Structure formats: C-alpha cells, structure tokens
C-alpha cells in the first residue's frame, strides 16, 4: 500500500509545488505554441531553453538558501514569499506586453522569473526532504509529481485555452491569482510541524560536503546522463503538434488533458511500482518505455498520424515523464543528507537539467535544418544507450533501496 504524508503536510506539499508549477508551465508549455502560431521560428523557440539556466545553476547558491531557510531572523517562509513575489510581479508585467512586439523586454523578465522560481525550488525541496520520513518519501514525491501535472494542466493548457477565450493579458492575470491562492496552505502551516529530527552538528551547508559522501560522483554522473535524450523531444513536442495542423486549444487539450488523465495517475503509479519492485527494475522499465515513445515520435514525423494517434502518443509520453519524476526524486532524497538537505537534493536535480537544457537548445537548431524526424530518431537511440550506461553508475546504496520503514537518509 502506498504511504502518503499526513493530510495537512500533503496539502502543503501540493500547494507549495503547485505555486511553482503554474507560472513555470505557463512559460514552458503555453508560450512556445503561442509564439509558433504567431510565426516565430523553431530556432528562437528552442533558444528559450536558456531560461532553464537558473534551474541548472541553482546548486551554486543552494548552500546560501539552505543557510537562510534555517536562519532565525529570515526563515523558510520569508525566502519562499520573496521568490514568489518576484514571480508574480513578472507575470503581471508580462500581461502588459505583446509576446512578439516586445520580445526584447520579454526575455529579461522571463529570466528573472526563472531565477526566482529556481531559488524557491531550492527552499521547497529542502523543506520536503526534512519533512518526509523514509517510508513517506515515494508518496511525497508522488504528490510533487501530481502538483507538476496539475501545473501543466492549469498553467500550460489553461493559459492556452484562456488565451483563445479572453486574450493574453487577462489569461496571465488569472494565472497570477491562482498562484496566490494555491500556496496559502503552506503559509498557514507552522514550518516545524512534522519536521524530522535534524542533526545537531549540521555545520555550514556547502557543495564540497556533498562530494565527501561515498558514491557522490557516481550519483552525480547518473543524474547528468539519465535525462540526456528527453530535451531533444520535449523542446519540440508542442511546436510539432502545431505543425501537424492542431489548433492551440487542441494542443492544450492533448498536453494538459494527458497530464490530468495520466500524469496524476503516473506519479502515484511510479511510487507504487518502486515500493513493490524496487528502484532498479523500475528504471529499466522506464528506459524501455521512453525509447519506444521516442521511436514512435520519429514514425509519426515520417509517416504522419491522425489526431487520436497524436493524442495517444502524448498520453503515453506524459505517463512516462511523471513516473520518472517520482523515481528520480525518491533516489535523490535517499542520497541527500539531513545536514544540508536543500543543497544535496538541489545539486542532483540541477544535474538532471544540464543535458536536458543542452538537448532543448540543440533540438530547435537541428529541427529547423533537418526536420523533426532525425531529431526524434537520435533521441530514441540515445534513450537506450545512455540510459543503460546511467544505470551502471547508480550507487549501490540507492539502486538497492533498503526497507522504507527502517532507514533514515544519509547523515
């Protein structure tokens, strides 16, 4: 049976991560098809992958966030509130601008929002690691995955639908209001409620302390390699649907609808599979499934497919993405130390985005020159080869998870 956190903590986790996911997927999922519909080139859209830079580099300032969140005069809630305020001001500023005419102003605002969201994520992840006992980590990460799925539906698909109904400016104001609403349960909960006992000699969080742990380099290499092929596909998926003749509303219904239908299920299914089978068999199954999905994208790019075929492929790919989130985050939590939870977990999650961002940047340029097919075929080949290599690097203490109810995170 899947073990979830207590109800009050579960609601706070959902709200905290949903407040990040709505603005994030408003930009990552809604903006690319809007720009494509307005005639913006794939190379420019692919270049938006640079907005992921703060999410890749956030490990550099994670130790300072770790310290601030435990500072008696600052604290976690103040850090989250400041970051969220920057994001909301950015959304409201974007609502007054035109996505094409004001493109030069758009990018700095989007980058500021990305920086604030990435910093907020450091604080949120550290809080989650400190509050999720080992027997609740898989369930807690399923809740994070559920928040992401809901964020895709609300921030991504919701923005696309509202854009068609009420226009760009009103759609963004609605997203800002929803973001404020969903984060309220987190701010209403005492920050220490349900927290696991922290080591008394925590010391000063620092990146070098991560590398002093046995198996750290292998764990980092695993995080770098595992998601390498995904950026090639994800950066092109929605523009690909637009170029297949779908309207923005249809794109929103397929991508967001699949997130609602199977993303939520996938997050919890991933946690249940890990608990029943173990992490290694789970990751093997995931690699096989995503390789098949990327090969199917190639087949569609070469031969074409109808609306229902595209929808089925998107649903399958979304399901895989959400069970992957649960698996990777559970592994990272197992490796993170309670002495510097935010720093360790952030370093590993940032590493997963390094190649993902590089793949997204490369995908737009390659697709503009070669077309979608060769890019999707490359992703399928890499999924199998690099995936298996990553598994050989996974540290033994993470690959073979000990009993969930008896083991504490490494300290």
What's this model, at a glance?
The chain contains 18 helices and no strands.
Provide key terms for this protein.
Growth Hormone, Chain: A; about 400 residues; single chain; mainly alpha
CATH topology term: Growth Hormone, Chain: A
One letter per element, helices H and strands E, the order comes to: HHHHHHHHHHHHHHHHHH
How much β-strand is present in the residues? under 5%
Radius of gyration: 20 Å
Sheet with most strands: none
CATH homology superfamily = MFS general substrate transporter like domains
Instruction: Output the structural class.
Output: mainly alpha
**Helix share bin:** over 70%
Shape: globular
Number of helices: 18
Mean pLDDT: 82
> pLDDT below 50 for ≥5 consecutive residues: which ranges?
402-411
Termini separation: 28 Å
How many domains, in number, for the residues? 1
* Name of the CATH architecture: Up-down Bundle
- Got a strand count? 0
Assign the CATH class.
Answer: Mainly Alpha
Can you offer a commentary on this structure?
This protein is 77% helix and 0% strand. By secondary structure, the protein is mainly α. It has one domain: MFS general substrate transporter like domains (Growth Hormone, Chain: A), CATH 1.20.1250.20. It contains 18 helices and no strands. Helix 11 (216-226) packs parallel to helix 16 (341-370) and helix 14 runs antiparallel to helix 15. It has helices at 7-37, 42-47, 53-57, 62-69, 76-94, 103-131, 137-166, 168-182, 184-188, 207-211, 216-226, 230-243, 248-277, 279-303, 307-335, 341-370, 372-393, 396-399. The chain is globular. The longest helix is centred in the first third of the chain and has 31 residues, at 7-37. The protein starts with 6 loop residues before the first helix and ends in a 12-residue tail after the last helix.
């Amino acid at each position: 049976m899947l073990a979830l956190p207590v109800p009050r903590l579960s609601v706070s986790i959902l709200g905290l991560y949903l407040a990040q996911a709505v603005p994030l997927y408003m930009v990552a999922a809604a903006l690319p098809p809007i720009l494509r519909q307005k005639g913006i080139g794939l190379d420019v859209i692919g270049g938006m992958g640079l907005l992921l830079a703060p999410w890749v580099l956030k490990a550099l300032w994670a130790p300072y966030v770790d310290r601030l969140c435990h500072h008696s005069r600052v604290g976690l809630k103040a850090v989250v509130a400041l970051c969220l305020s920057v994001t909301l001001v950015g959304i409201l500023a974007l609502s007054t601008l035109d996505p094409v005419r004001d493109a030069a102003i758009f990018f700095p605002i989007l980058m500021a929002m990305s920086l604030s969201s990435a910093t907020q994520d450091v604080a949120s992840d550290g809080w989650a690691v400190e509050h999720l006992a080992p027997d609740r980590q898989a369930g807690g990460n399923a809740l994070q995955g559920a928040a992401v799925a809901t964020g895709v539906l609300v921030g991504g698909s919701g923005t696309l639908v509202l854009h068609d109904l009420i226009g760009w400016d009103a759609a963004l104001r609605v997203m800002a209001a929803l973001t404020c609403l969903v984060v309220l349960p987190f701010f209403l909960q005492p920050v220490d409620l349900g927290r696991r006992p922290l080591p008394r000699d925590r010391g000063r969080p620092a990146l070098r302390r991560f590398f002093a742990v046995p198996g750290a380099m292998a764990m980092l290499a695993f995080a770098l390699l595992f998601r390498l092929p995904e950026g090639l596909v994800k950066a092109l998926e929605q523009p690909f649907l637009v170029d297949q003749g779908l309207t923005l509303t249809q794109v929103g219904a397929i991508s967001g609808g699949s997130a609602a239908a199977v993303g939520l299920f996938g997050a919890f299914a991933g946690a249940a599979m890990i608990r029943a089978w173990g992490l290694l068999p789970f990751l093997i199954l995931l690699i096989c499934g995503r390789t098949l999905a990327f090969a199917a994208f190639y087949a569609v790019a070469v031969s074409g497919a109808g609306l229902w075929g595209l929808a089925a492929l998107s649903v399958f790919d979304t399901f895989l993405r959400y069970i992957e989130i649960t698996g990777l985050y559970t592994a990272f939590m197992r490796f993170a130390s309670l002495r510097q939870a935010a720093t360790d977990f952030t370093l590993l999650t940032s590493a997963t985005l390094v190649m993902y961002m590089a793949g997204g940047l490369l995908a737009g340029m390659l697709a503009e020159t070669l077309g979608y097919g060769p890019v999707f075929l490359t992703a399928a080949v890499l999924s199998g080869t690099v995936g298996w290599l990553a598994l050989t690097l996974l540290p033994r203490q993470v690959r073979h998870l000990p009993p969930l109810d008896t083991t504490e995170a490494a300290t």
